[in-house]
Structures are given as structure tokens and as C-alpha cells.
Design a protein that fits this description.
mainly beta; lipopolysaccharide transport protein A fold; nine-stranded antiparallel beta sheet; 1 helix; 7% helix; 60% strand
Length: 175
């Protein structure tokens, strides 16, 4: 008889008996925010891949995107050349090597094999710090020692010492 009552109780509780309490809601991380902050992404060897200085940093926990205001960026290419960038804003996805610089962007450094610095200006640049590729689909200006070249779109492969301007290239470069 006790087995029959226990079986009836199990069947009735599964078919409309008292509802089980909902599983505990997973607490969401509130993210973080910081003023006058520095983010340093290190590589497998422990050395910095890049450093970001920002007037303000806000992490968006749901999307894992970190938003940056008044950004200054530094990174070294494979040849050891230091590159410096500035932008009004930036975005970094957690765990990714992609840094998107937005608004009045300038990135300057030495292309391997050259002695004159180059400055790249655009409204938006994407920097992949692992592959050392800088890209944009927006209008861009390259300034090599005062000689300007205007174009739309750029792919700069720093490891390969190659800069490709995508379209509408205008300028004059006198070596």
C-alpha cells in the first residue's frame, strides 16, 4: 500500500501537482567603468600586445564589448616598431584582438624598411593586434613626411610591409 501511495504522489506531482520552484536566476555581471584608465592586452609570452589609455572605459556585460572615450593606443609590430593611435572613441571585444577606433582617428609609426614615419588618418580604423593588420572602408589620408595620399579604404599588413589603398586614390608621392 505504501508503494502505491508513493507512486500516486510521484505521478500527480509530475502532472499538475505543485510546481517546482524556478531555478535560481544566474546573476549577471554589472560590468565595470573607470575614469583615466589603462587596458593592457598581453600575449602568450606575457608581453603587452597593445596598451589602451582612455579618459573613460565602460564594459557592456551582455555583449562583452568595452567602450572607450578619448582613446590613445600603443602597440609594437613584429619588427619592434612602436605605433601610436588616437581616437575620440574605441571598442574592444573581450577576448578578441580587434580594436576599433572611431572618430578623428590617427595612427602613426614606422613601416618596416622605411626611415620616415607614416600617419594614417580616417574616421574609423580597425586594428587587429595579433595579425598586425590595420583596415578601414572609410576615406583615409596617408601622410609620409608631408606628402599626402587620399583614398577610400585601406589594408595595411604591417608584418608583410604592405599598404594597399582600395579605391579613389589621389595624391602624389615623390620619393
Amino acid at each position: 500500500m505504501g508503494l502505491l501511495v508513493a507512486g500516486w504522489f510521484v505521478l500527480n506531482s509530475e502532472q499538475g501537482g505543485p510546481a517546482a520552484p524556478p531555478p535560481a536566476a544566474r546573476p549577471t555581471s554589472p560590468g565595470y567603468a573607470a575614469q583615466d584608465a589603462v587596458l593592457v592586452e598581453t600575449g602568450p609570452d606575457g608581453n603587452p600586445m597593445y596598451t589602451l589609455h582612455a579618459a573613460r572605459i565602460r564594459q557592456q556585460p551582455a555583449s562583452q564589448v568595452t567602450l572607450l572615450d578619448q582613446v590613445q593606443m600603443q602597440f609594437r609590430d613584429a619588427a619592434g616598431n612602436l605605433w601610436n593611435g588616437r581616437a575620440d572613441q574605441g571598442q574592444v571585444v573581450s577576448g578578441a584582438s580587434q580594436v576599433e577606433l572611431i572618430g578623428h582617428v590617427t595612427v602613426a609609426g614606422l613601416l618596416p624598411g622605411t626611415s620616415e614615419p607614416v600617419q594614417v588618418s580616417s574616421d574609423r580604423l580597425n586594428v587587429d593586434t595579433r595579425t598586425e593588420v590595420v583596415t578601414t572602408d572609410d576615406p583615409v589620408v596617408l601622410d609620409w613626411n608631408g606628402q599626402l595620399v587620399h583614398a577610400r579604404g585601406l589594408v595595411a599588413r604591417l608584418k608583410e610591409q604592405r599598404v594597399r589603398l582600395e579605391s579613389n586614390v589621389h595624391g602624389r608621392y615623390v620619393p
